[in-house]
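Morning!

This is the sequence you dropped in the shared folder:
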Amino acid sequence: MRRLSLLLIVLFLIPVLPASAAEDLQGLIDDAAPGSVLVLPAGVYDGNVVIDKPLELRGEGWPTIDGHGTGNVIEIDAPDVTVSGLKIVNTGLSLDQENAGVSVNAERVTVTNNRFEDVLFGIYLRRSDDSYVADNMIGAVDVDVARRGDGIRLWESSRVVVERNVVDGGRDTVLWFSDDLILRDNRVTNGRYGIHFMYSDRALVERNYLSGNSVGGFLMYSKDLTFRDNVVSGSHGPSGYGIGLKDMDGVTVTGNHMMSNRVGIYFDNTPATPGIEHEVSDNLFAYNDVGVLFLPSVRGNVFSGNGFVDNAEQVGVKGKGEFHENNVWTVGEVGNHWSDFAGYDADGDGVGDVNYESADLFSTLTDKNPDLHFFDATPASQAIDLAGKMFPAFKPRPKLTDSAPLIALPALPNPVATPGPGSTMTTAGIAALMLAAAAGLWAVGRAPLRRTTR
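The structure's back. Tokens below.
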């Protein structure tokens, strides 16, 4: 009996560690030789670590790196570091300190195939030229969007490739002072700006899926950017631009699907330099409140081969000023398809025999007085449009003239992005489903998607 009592006392005095006690990851990193591969098996490891030597940190079985709600989970201060296969969780919540799941201050860093949960910023690259960010799934902390950090942020980091990432619920994917970038096959949803360029030249943005953001993308103060084969939908924030272009030069916008946004594309002083022309071709603008929106002074954009399908207003002008014929709507014998074109094609060549003109009286009034949108699709707006057609004195000057309107919707390119790791549906499939759903609503006589967001 005495032996049993002593045994119970000894057992009571021995500390019992929980099964999930975190491992000392910093110690493992410090002990690793430069250039080595450190493989982490499944388990929980303490975060707030610093990698200050070339190293590959690779997880097997999704080990969790836990920042315990403070600082950066992983900070990389040496070039030629790779981080992959990790679950990275629980950063600090300081916007001032820009706490991130992975914070990088070095060149040639690779961050691939990681999962980020409860992180303020996801991946933050500073002066990290020639880096690679791919196949990551990045979530966010559950706070108001203005208090969140960016899913991916680049600062003075050129020649970076960002591809096949899924970013959901963050603030922005933002690129500052970073040239020669490639962003492709990413899926960015439920944030503020899906993609935000600032002072970043010579970028390629292709096959991305941007949906449910306040703004799909805002491209500002940059040059020589190609935006092609992307799907942008459901941008319904205060501005609700699918894509906004401000003070841009050398932009090509082609092969994109812009659907169910408040505005498909918004042009503000773009191009910014006189004499520069921008190509806007082979895009689909469908079921937006406004297909393309301009400030009155914008000129130098050339539109051809685009499909404008059932936008509440095909082309709008924001504010007062002279806009007529500032931009080009026909290239050679190729214009654009307009779902509200009321002309004819007597010779059957697929091109309308009369011009398409945007001269809707009610839309002209709402461009200058946005509060009148309250009367959209009401008998009052219809009566105003009828008056503009019946009485030439009331007919406004056309905002645009397309001299070769296409009778049929052209065979537009289909975006073919795979929207992030683990997805089985391409953006082409998503786009097809959205179009089919919108067409179905229209066919049964219900209000189309474009009418629900005023």
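Headline: The CA atoms of residues 151 and 364 lie 39 Å apart.

More detail when I'm at my desk.
O.
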